[in-house]
Design goal:
It holds the Pfam family F-box. By secondary structure, the protein is α+β, with helices and mostly antiparallel strands. It is 34% helix and 18% strand. About 26% of the residues have low confidence.
Length: 405
């Protein structure tokens, strides 16, 4: 800058006082005028430049995002090609410029991984991507088959027992923060500098949102209650049964780890690699140690599919066992003459066992049924009638390859 100033001043003085030896050409008068205006503009530009620098230092104007200052300026085609469609420094069309309905339709069609990535772009998209209405569909599609009221209660207790879930202290991440870091974009778990206040802020996910619950299930760090068909890798003593257990998802194999509660004096049984086909949400929000109050006894007819509670003794929890309603011994099975549905006695049959087996059938009283049985044959509890063909088909798909004794 000083060099340009010196050259201009020297040429101006030279033209202002020409040597008397030779007359100057006529264009020198025009050059004097141009040099004068150039010097004036140069001095004004230098003054404004120093003034701008002072203002930037005082008011931190240089920390305002560049998008705020050149939003309406046109860019070259190469600059537009390099600009990101979402968080570019210069002006142009971005996702946030779309109509609200169009943007909402795009977010509704994103998979969970896409929503997580989009949520790490900016604050505006983050607020949209963590909305419960976007994650309700994903939760129902993937976890609706195995999640019930008991699992939701367990999640609420998990949140209540960890009051520091949303806080982040120095050192290693703790609690839910570490859990989310396995699935969450790194930009969400690191401090971000505020460009205006020159301070660091931390983005956090609402822990009580459906999104946080989905990610807790997806990472496998949250154990939840559900029910497992044919427990303990199809142990012969549990064929065509369904028992309560605690489950943890393994995202690497798309299967589950299972912990069965202790039965009597037995230790906790475990099982790994359990597929989705062997899992379901509990049909009732009751403890496996409580008797289910049957409300279908008056509707039971021969051929109906049922599930009935059964346990070995009073110390064991109930499991649900598949069976069908049979005919009384006095009935020949002819539909035109069958009156079994008018009798107080209901015969329940378990066709997975051979005829003559003590587990083949049992009888209950339609009007006074509670828990029936003894220590030798176990105790039969509440009954639920299966109306859904999908439930019946699931039991049939689990049918043992050989008839049990």
């Amino acid at each position: 800058m000083l060099l340009y100033f010196f050259i201009t001043c020297f040429s101006f003085v030279l033209l202002l006082k020409p040597l008397p030896l030779k007359p100057l050409p006529p264009w020198t008068s025009e050059m004097r005028l141009l040099s004068f205006w150039f010097l004036k503009d140069l001095l004004l530009f230098s003054y404004l430049g120093s003034l701008r620098s002072t203002l930037l230092k005082v008011f931190h104007i240089d920390r305002i995002p560049l998008k705020m200052t050149i939003k309406n300026m046109s860019l070259s085609s190469s600059a537009r090609a390099e600009k990101s469609s979402l968080d570019g420094e210069a002006g142009g069309m971005s996702v946030l410029d779309l109509p609200e309905l169009a943007l909402e339709c795009i977010l509704e069609r994103l998979p969970p991984a896409g929503l997580c990535s989009m949520a790490g772009v900016c604050t505006s998209l983050r607020e949209r991507c963590v909305s419960d209405h976007l994650w309700e569909k994903h939760m129902k599609q993937k976890w609706g088959r195995v999640i019930g009221p008991a699992a939701y209660r367990e999640w609420q207790w998990h949140l209540a027992s960890r009051k520091d879930l949303g806080s982040c202290k120095q050192g290693k991440p703790k609690g839910f923060t570490r859990l989310l870091s396995m699935f969450w974009p790194s930009s969400w778990s690191t401090p971000k500098a505020d460009p205006i206040n020159n301070s660091k802020q931390r983005s956090s996910l609402p822990v009580n949102s459906i999104m946080s619950w989905y990610l807790a299930l997806e990472t496998g760090k949250f154990w939840f209650p559900a029910q497992v068909f044919n427990r303990e890798n199809g142990h012969v003593g549990f064929m065509l049964s369904c028992y309560d257990a605690n489950l943890s998802y393994d995202p690497g194999t798309d299967t589950f780890q299972v912990r069965y509660p202790p039965h009597g004096r037995r230790a906790i049984a475990t099982e790994s690699g359990v597929p989705w086909e062997r899992l379901r949400a509990p049909p009732f929000d009751t403890s496996p140690h409580d008797l289910h109050i049957s409300d279908c006894l008056n509707d039971l007819r021969p051929g109906d599919h049922i599930e009935i509670q059964w346990r070995r003794n009073k110390e064991f929890p109930y499991g649900w066992w598949y069976g069908v309603v049979g005919h009384l011994e006095s009935c020949d099975g002819n539909e035109n003459y069958c009156r079994c549905h008018n009798s107080d006695t209901v015969v329940l049959e378990f066709h997975q066992y051979t005829p003559g087996s003590r587990w083949r059938s049992t009888a209950i009283n339609r009007k006074e049924h509670r828990e029936e049985g003894d220590e030798a044959d176990g105790f039969y509890g509440g009954i639920r009638k299966l109306y859904n063909n999908e439930e019946i088909s699931r039991w049939k798909r689990l049918w043992p390859t050989e008839v049990l004794e």
